[in-house]
Amino acid sequence: MPDPSSILLIEPDDEPLQPLLGQLAPQCPTLCRLDGVIGGEEALERLLEHRYSIILISWLASFEEEAVETVRRIRQLEQLQGRDATPIYLCAAQPVNHSLGRLVQGAVQTPLKYQAICGDEKSLLPSAAAQDEAVDLAQAMRDTGLPESSFMEVARVISSQIPSALLRLQQELEAGQFEQARESSHILKGSMANIIFPQLQPRSHSLHQAIRDGDGEAAKLLFAQLKGVFEPILQALEKRFPTLCE
């Protein structure tokens, strides 16, 4: 398991690294681990030794190509070791429109602020509260305007269709069958579950776009994230409507 509060900062060279470490270190609590490395090779060596709760990677034009490759190699390492994907954020002086958009969770602006990065975990990291919110079935259905008399039928449709759709899409991605995967992701994107649970929508849209672009690595990562959001929803349906699974 990663440390509850541990940050890895990746920079292209020592000159920008030290000021950023200097910004962040005084704000970090005593038990927070803060490490800085130069370049992708050092980052991968450090990740073999330690699991971090957040990775920050500098976004500079001169470092763009290496940054893309570093993120891809980090994801490959995590897959080989059977690890969950570590949240990765770009750090830049200004908002960025970056080519890593489907491989990272977002961006934070410098000067770095610990509270914005790690202090309030629900701002950047998955949290129990966010998960509980995701599975408020009755409220989600009411918000969509569905009458309570239809809740059971809607739950039955989601419970019967989504698991097989996810399995089919996973198999197609693993086989590199992008035409079939594109059709399967389109079905998920237009599913009743995607309409009822808005937290699914950005992930399903990003996944569909990655498949359309033929970006296999991004598609697999986004599929894992989408499946992770579906799981508590399906579990909540099973708990709320146990007869669906009989």
TrEMBL record:
The family database entries (PROSITE patterns) matched by this protein are listed as: HPT
Q: Which residues form the HPt domain?
A: 147-240
PTM sites of type Phosphohistidine: 186
Q: Which UniProt keywords apply?
A: Kinase, Phosphoprotein, Transferase, Two-component regulatory system
Q: Does the keyword Ribonucleoprotein apply?
A: no
- Membrane-crossing segments per the record: none
Q: GO: which molecular function terms?
A: protein kinase activity
Phosphoprotein as a keyword of this entry, yes or no, is yes
* Top-rank lineage group of the source organism: Bacteria
Any one GO biological process: phosphorelay signal transduction system
Q: What is this protein called?
A: Putative histidine kinase phosphotransfer protein
Species name = Magnetococcus massalia (strain MO-1)
